[in-house]
Amino acid sequence: MFFKLGIMTAAATLALPLGSAVASSVLLGAAIGFVANHAFARRVFAFGGGTGAGLVATLYRAELARLLTVGFLFAALFAIGAPVNVPALLGGYLAVHLGTSVAAFILDPSRQG
């Protein structure tokens, strides 16, 4: 969780030279990604055990909730008419997803010699 917050901060900071509108759009997109992924993780890790089928069902429900959360938050952002830079918004959203995946690959202890 703290790593994603760091990615959010770094992405917004790197976007500051492009203007405050772009940086705030990057931060909004990253925040949407963070909220959705955090809700997904809480649902999955709350799984108390049981059968494999129960785990799969929990994963599917959590993923559906994540997609609905992302859709609702993006729709709400556009519905309120906030002035956002769409490419920066999507870039911030993707930075949270790709940043954690890339970091997990780079920091994987099994790859260390």
What does this structure look like?
The chain has 113 residues and is mainly α. The chain has one domain. It is built from 4 helices and no strands.
What integer is the average pLDDT? Answer: 87
The assigned structural class equals mainly alpha
State the helicity in percent bands: over 70%
Number of strands: 0
- How many structural domains? 1
Tell me about the largest β-sheet.
none
- Uncertain ranges: none
Rg (C-alpha, Å): 16 Å
Shape: flat
SSE series: HHHH
Strand percent estimate? under 5%
| Amino-to-carboxy terminus distance | 27 Å
| Count of alpha and pi helical runs | 4
Write the layout of secondary structure elements.
Blueprint: H1 2-15, H2 20-45, H3 52-79, H4 86-106
Helix pairs in contact: 1-2, 1-4, 2-3, 2-4
Summarize the structure.
The chain is mostly helical.
